[in-house]
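Incident log entry.

Two folding requests arrived from the same account within the same minute. Monitoring flagged them as a possible duplicate submission, but the sequences differ. Recording both here for audit purposes.

Request one:
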Amino acid sequence: MNSQAHILYVDDEENNLIAFRASFRRLFKIYIASSAAEAKVILAENDIHVLISDQKMPGTPGIELLEEALKKYPDQVRILLTAYSDFEVLKKAVNNGYIFKYIIKPWDESELKDIIKQAHALYTKNRSSEKPIPDVESRKAYLEDEIRKLEEVLAQKKEEIEKFIDGRT
């Protein structure tokens, strides 16, 4: 797996795309798109680790793009970046698991860099997971199975210790 973060930033404002690329091109592999449609093409053709989208865009709003990306690329980490504080959009994005973070424009470069690094670390963790666990019931079953395995190992160790103690007396 490539250790450099692959970031796609989607924004309909050309100046923001230019500023983003200029700020982060030395740290990350940067892709930019000026619409959700353009972003979907980039997503289909590249291994994007972190998707950052502006909310207010003509056509498809950022939250819809992030929702679609979640379905197709579940390991990818999504960030909503917007100049507007739309509580309902934020609530929907958080409650439905569409986003990792919500950032208000104008962004603080240092803060955004740290958030992207955190997002990439989460992406790496998601990708390296041996057994992906998609939902709560699967997680519960997985953890119960792991507990059973540990209980079996503990029972074996207890038996070995008892045999060892019995052999000494």
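Request two (distinct sequence, not a duplicate):
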Amino acid sequence: MGAHTSADASAVLDAIRRIVRLLRQRERDAQTQTGLSGAQLFILHTLQAAGGALTPGELSRYTLTHQSSVSGVVRRLTEAGFVRRARSPIDARRVELSLTPAGRAAVRRAPRPVQQDLIGAVDLLPQSDRVALARGLSRLNRQLGIGPEPPPMLFEEGAEGAG
């Protein structure tokens, strides 16, 4: 490995370490302030921002997360009384998710989810940088032996490999 490659690798690892440190710190802050995980707060904030009920598929799209990962977090939030699942009054085949009064109260006292900041920062990158970053991270995943299965939400409770 040449000096240039080592410097590049060092820069990549430093950037990853800084992002992981930010994610962990914001996760701890969220847990301390609300008793909820960052994934749970992200779901609650997303439902609040939508201003109404969302289907699980819509929530998945808004959070940029696979529906199976969203479903587990929503299940825990529903069991805890923060989210309500109900059939649509317009189309009974449609399940809608909305905040309960406890869910709205949790959003009011919660810090901004780090996932929103991460999505916003990625969106600010020029498209060519986003494409290059996605390609590079996909290659890195493959080289690390990380399979194509849907990843869990960031710091999802009970998720294998959550950190």
